[in-house]
Design a protein that fits this description.
31% helix; 17 strands; seven-stranded antiparallel beta sheet; alpha+beta; six-stranded mixed beta sheet
Length: 377
């Protein structure tokens, strides 16, 4: 049975839930909503199907964008001209990447599994699939959250190779990595291509039949996002606290409430990743306490009163106290009053391999991962 977003309210709720699950990353909510509403206005309600609704031999793949925050000034125009980069060849590189992967492998792709959950990470592959006349699967390969690197997917945790990988930039450069040393190296190559192209690249990978994809994915995350988006909106409409309602109805913990005192962006690895730190001063029951969150595209390590607190692979979300809307990293600014919500990681990311690829030591912190439920006791 296909689930469709039949109204503007459905689309708004869906994007709100995706932003919550996106752990501070996952793409701009405004863009995701715009894509969905354009599809809806065209008379084609976007939606998804359960992996169980697909014939087991249906070929599936993941398609997404890769690249980080550009520098403030952008690339020099003369530099672009010297490289012959005057006019982009593609407005949308994702269908190109997906078609190139299918052509290279000699298969017909019938469905897309979103690689991650996020306002852009989920809507973009959904719109891409709809434009190509194929299905979007209700699930993801990131454990129901966003992740910064290809090496952190659940198939990688389970030992599934992501190769072959196709990468396409907007200027028309197409790269096919037939095989590779590791997912980490594939991610590195993609980041280098993004830097070379002065912007993100589209990639398509994780080609597998539905019967295998089912064993590798986190099921139900699109439906979960819609449900969470509705919980947050309805709480706001009733005058209830959205952070309290989402943890009550969907598990999790309110980790902190506070005012943002600083949001510091680290200017490094332009076009590859976005780094930064948010600092909060407590309000209400958290008065006289402080909270800090470090992110690499998504939130990964937090400190309560300068002591290590919740960390990846467990997930965090920041919700605006004024309107109940979840934030992405670049929408957080000093003076905002927010709640930080934490939730448990998917089981795959809590294995030894999952913690190795998504835990604090992976990001350069000499900290042992301690599960969120132990930290909040």
């Amino acid at each position: 049975m296909k689930m469709t977003l039949a109204t503007q309210q459905d689309c708004e709720d869906f994007v709100r839930g995706l932003t919550f699950l996106g752990t501070g990353g996952g793409g701009a909510p405004e863009r995701g909503l715009k894509l969905l509403l354009e599809k809806l206005d065209a008379g084609a309600a976007p939606g998804w199907v359960s992996i169980d609704d697909l014939p087991p031999d249906t070929w599936t793949a993941t398609v997404a964008g890769l690249g980080g925050r550009p520098p403030k000034d952008g690339p020099p125009q003369k530099e672009l001209e010297l490289l012959g980069l005057s006019t982009p060849l593609y407005d949308n590189t994702l269908p190109v990447a997906l078609r190139e992967l299918a052509q290279y492998a000699g298969v017909e792709i019938g469905a897309v599994v979103p690689g991650e959950v996020g306002a852009g990470n989920s809507t973009v592959p959904m719109i891409t699939a709809a434009a190509m006349g194929i299905q979007t699967v209700d699930g993801d390969y990131a454990g129901g959250r966003s992740i910064p690197e290809l090496s952190q997917t659940t198939p990688e945790v389970f030992g599934k190779s992501l190769f072959p990988v196709v990468m396409v930039d907007r200027w028309g450069d197409i790269s096919i990595i037939k095989a590779g040393a590791s997912a980490q190296m594939a991610d590195r190559i993609g980041r280098m291509l993004a830097a070379a192209a002065y912007g993100g690249v589209a990639f398509a990978c994780l080609l597998m039949q539905a019967k295998e994809a089912k064993t590798q994915m986190n099921p139900g995350s699109m439906s979960q996002a819609l449900q969470i988006g509705r919980i947050l909106r309805q709480a706001r409409e009733r005058g209830d606290d959205p952070a309290n309602e989402v943890v009550k109805q969907h598990d999790g913990w309110v980790l902190f409430r506070g005012e943002v005192t600083a949001s510091v962006v680290e200017d490094k690895e332009a076009y590859m990743f976005g780094y930064g730190t948010h600092q909060l001063r407590g309000v209400d029951e958290f008065a006289r306490h402080t909270f800090r969150i470090w992110y690499k595209n998504e939130y990964h390590v937090s400190w309560l009163d300068d002591q290590p607190y919740v960390m990846s692979p467990d997930a965090m979300a920041v919700i605006d106290l004024s309107n109940g809307e979840p934030h992405v990293n670049n929408s957080i600014a000093a003076g905002q009053r927010v709640a930080v919500v934490g939730r448990q990681a998917a089981a795959a990311h809590r294995t030894a391999r999952g913690v190795e690829v998504l835990g604090p030591r992976h990001f350069g912190f000499e900290l042992d991962y301690i599960p969120i439920e132990q930290k909040v006791r």
